[in-house]
Write a structure and sequence with these properties.
There is one protein chain. By secondary structure, the protein is mostly helical. Helix content is 76%, strand content 0%. The protein has one domain. α6 runs antiparallel to α7. It starts with 7 loop residues before the first helix and ends in a 5-residue tail after the last helix.
């Protein structure tokens, strides 16, 4: 039974991301525009909510760092091979995508305040949405799903991993069908819960069985 303190990363990933949602709810004075909203609405939002934007960007950056710390520790529960490789790639891309999302939020805040072209703002907003939405959630699902395919964690965590990975991976359909966006928040939430459970297993040194 080996304990790995990097399991704390899985817990902090969920904690920091949730803190970001709470900060957004408390600090934002207007609703975040949908991806289909005109660029002028995006500019208005970022101009009106600089505190919310920067606060959420910072905690999302912390969440991504926590996830990147957690990924190699969790992947080590798998035997070397395609499953470990798939889990590692999925986890690292999920963390990197969240970093890109956080950075783009800051860039959008600067651009909105600086009067950048609406075409540029629109492109940045699309990249921001995709990196923090479909790219992050789908690859998080790949990470969780790959880890659940092998006996690297207790059976209960593995079975919950199947449940969490399914809507997360199905989130890729959001790139083609608008209403498939419903998979993204569901997959993200279940994926974060799985990371908390797996993180606790690493911290206490739960045996692989």
């Amino acid at each position: 039974m080996t304990r790995d303190m990097r399991g704390l990363g899985g817990i902090l990933f969920a904690v920091f991301f949730t803190v970001g949602d709470v900060l957004l709810a408390f600090l934002a004075t207007t609703a975040l525009p949908l991806p289909t909203a005109p660029a002028s609405a995006v500019v208005a939002y970022f101009q009106a909510n600089p505190a919310a934007v920067w606060s959420v960007a910072v905690v999302q950056l912390l969440a991504s760092i926590a996830l990147l710390v957690f990924v190699p520790a969790a992947a080590r529960r798998l035997e070397p091979g395609w499953q470990r490789t798939t889990a590692s790639i999925g986890g690292f891309v999920a963390g990197a995508a969240l970093i890109v999302c956080a950075v783009l939020s800051g860039v959008l805040a600067i651009g909105a305040a600086g009067g950048w072209s609406l075409d540029v703002i629109d492109g940045l907003r699309t990249a921001n949405f995709l990196s923090g939405g479909a790219v992050h959630v789908v690859t998080l699902g790949v990470f969780v799903g790959a880890l659940s395919l092998a006996a690297g964690f207790p059976k209960g965590i593995r079975w919950f991993g199947y449940l969490a990975a399914t809507p997360a991976v199905l989130g890729i359909l959001s790139l083609f069908f608008y209403y498939a966006n419903v998979f993204l928040p569901v997959g993200r939430t279940l994926g974060m819960i799985w990371c908390v459970a797996a993180g606790i297993a690493l911290l206490v040194g739960t045996r692989r069985r």
